[in-house]
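Job type: complex structure
Entries:
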Amino acid sequence: MSGTDITKYFNQLHEKCGQILTSSMAGSNLEIVAGSHQFAYELQGWCNILDQRTEVELLKVAAMEYELALLALAQGHYRHSFKALRLVLELTLQAVYLSASEICLREWLDSRIDTIWSLIVDENNGVFSVRFAKAFFPDLITHVKHHQGLAISIYRECSECVHGNIPKHIPLPSSLDFNQEVFTLWHSKAEVVALILHFALSMRYLPDLSEKDIIEVEPFLTDHLGHLKEIRQLFGGPTKG
Amino acid sequence: MTNLIIRTEDIKQEYILELYVETSQDKYTVEKLKSQTPVILEGGRGTGKSFLLRVAEAQLLQTFQRDRVLPVYVSFVKSSLLQSNDPNQFMHWMMARLCSRIIRALYQKGLLVHQHSALSLMTGGQTSIDLEELPLEKVAREYEESYKSPGRIVNTAMIPTVDDFNDAIEDICRNLKIEHMAIFFDEAAHVFRPEQQRQFFTLFRDLRSPFLSCNAAVYPGVTFYGQTFQTTHDATVISLNRDPLEQGYLAGMQEIVLKQADAQLSSDIGRYQENFHALAFAVSGNPRLLLKTVGMASRIRSGDVKRVLKEFYRTDIWSEHSGLADRYAGHRAYIDWGRDFIEKTVIPDCIKKNTQWEQEKKNESTCFFWVHRDAPAAINEALRLLSYTGIVAQLDSGVVATRREIGTRYAVNLGCLAASSAEPVQVLTNLSRTLSIKRFTEYGANHPIFAELIAVVGKFQEADISEVLARELAKPIDVLDLTEYQKSGLSSISLNTVGDALQASEAEFQRITYVGPKRSRRMMNVVISSVLEYLSG
């Protein structure tokens, strides 16, 4: 294959991706993409208010990966979009987890320790443990178990796309074509990821935020977590029956 | 046992339509809310105002591609703490909040794109999209924070006028091919602050344009429309009274519960229909009370329901009403008199009539009463507060009674009426068969019972806003939901009142022994949220 041919070959693929992008943005899909895209800015919002903290570097990478995941999805790179979504979940929860241990955080940033998913979601010491909630936002203790379950399930589902094993949850197409079913599925998974991550970040940081910073996160946290009365109460919303 | 969700705020937006039971009345209300006509949705606590606003929003979101009507839901719940010498502050705060929600709705529909994204940094910060961010969000924050330092000057030169705003909305709609925006104001007038309520309705009227339709949920008991707003001209008022006598009422109420019920509860409801009907009838059309009382009645057996009817309608509902007096001390006399009026006059009068008619084998009963239109304003105020908690419902005005006198007709909550009976389920079942709206007790313009209230409050006067808030802020910190440690910490640095605590800086909190920057921040947040919780109730 000559240099010209390979350019042509990749241009063809690029054109195909362009066609898929058009389908991804057509009709009501546009709204779905826009809705999911919000989370990139919401993560950016967290980065802005946590700017002075060491772990913010992980969150910045997560915010960027999330946008790349959406780009991959829109162009039909479905497997990569789910892999990237898992990375966003892992990176953000890792940031929250390591924020509670400065030494581990510095070791991780220095590549001396690895990310171990089972530690992040560990029942006794992980992000969704009662211990963790008790230390940072005790009112949310009753909700940690539910979000831990969600995190474990969604991680497992997205992992199918990493390991390439027989799909149970995500039916990836075998060709480079637009696939409405997988496209819609990604957004529903992304919504769950957004919920889990906002919950984890809120549990870790919300009670410590200044009034000014609370006002910053309030609009999107009300949309994602406003159904939890403990969160609503912090924003001055009604809680009594 | 099923864990029933009783507040709309507890429901995630995507599940709203799943829980919606479309009765003909609610369908009409939702269609009106979605239309271009401005609607004021009036109803007591728990009648489903927020829920229907959310339903209208969800339906419009679903049909946006086709109809191009953009719904925007705005809650004004946090307004209770706004306090400033600037008379325009509340108006500007509302505008800022509205803008911020509109912008978010546009983002979520993909009609606008944010200026700064992580990816745009990757591409060297270059995007082909040139967007000017409205400065209103920032100003809203300024205002939201301003209650802590009343009197601080806010730079209002940055804030556009309502006309500028309407022009901007027109431009956005034309450019983005939006038919119009349907704005849903929730908690628009939720605290007893007449001045704020008037300002809200002035804004509501001024926002009228072909590109905006405003809708607001308000309480009947606490709403002051002001001089410039005329409800008949400026909006359609829909009263959210679900009539227990209407055909399909019980089926509709049952479906509301079944939407959330597990198998056990569903089967219990099927098995003990009469008991469930008594509960549904007792709530007099209030879905939140129904979900609450069904939740309390565990298996819906006779004993359970009897216990709940007695406990809830003889104690709980009244303690909630009397609790209002703790939060709004200026209204205490009205609240206490209202309770006495219903418990010691209206309910005994109804029971007396019903007993007599039963003995006479007449197929009639009543829960209705009528108050002369010339009754003192203080009486109307007391009745409005009773309708806020759902103990009475105002049905219609201009009702002709004896000697062609004209007045307003009310219904007293059926649960309250039946609760004093030894067999409340039986009483409610009978009421459901014999109630007649034509039968009501009349209370004339100068009924002796009215004199008791007038003797206490004199001529009705609105409470001064700043005075009401000042009184709340002067209360000791004990009224707040804080731990003993937090309270003693605050006392140790002489922060003794709600106002002291609210206006203290983080540095001041740090004067408490063992409190550093983190704990002070956390304590301050706890104090602020406790105050909000306490004031908004």
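Summary: Chain A touches chain B through 46 residues (CB under 8 Å). Chain A has one domain: 3-234.
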